[in-house]
Amino acid sequence: MNTIDEVLAYNDEFVEEKRYEQFQTDKYPEKKLAVLSCMDTRLTELLPAALGLKNGDAKIIKNAGGVISHPFGSVIRSLLVAIFELGVENVMVVGHSNCGAQHMNAPEMIKHMLAAGVPQDHIELMHYCGIDFESWLAGFGDGEESVRETVSLIRHHPLIPESIVVRGFIIDSVTGKLTEVDCDTE
Description:
Distance between the termini: 53 Å
Number of helices: 7
Strand content: 15-25%
Shape: globular
């Protein structure tokens, strides 16, 4: 049995035993909070636990590095929905220690793609279509600076109201300790 089949078998039991009942809530975040963070597996349970969040408290948006790679991409779209449709008033940008996305290397990732069977002409097509792989797949050097840039992009986005509170943090990937990043030096 592969991993997905194991997950599906577990899900059948979960639903049959009505274990979902403890998680029932509605779509509106109780704390009027959205959290943008990294998809790192260490944060799956640690992040909400360290923030004191339970199901229904916040909208949690995760991606590689907890960054905004495009000002009109899926992260901003999700924040706009959270703000204008679901009542979010506060946004936390939470980077973390020892982030795997921090030192991503685009040429190295392209080598991995080629080794996995992605044809070279597909990669060339992406370049032809205007996608700058080196920029799109690049990591970041400093976690705090990445948080500052993300906070700034949200605060200055033309579609996000100035009334939305946006603050940045680094969470320790082991202890869950939050440290606020000074994002007011713009």
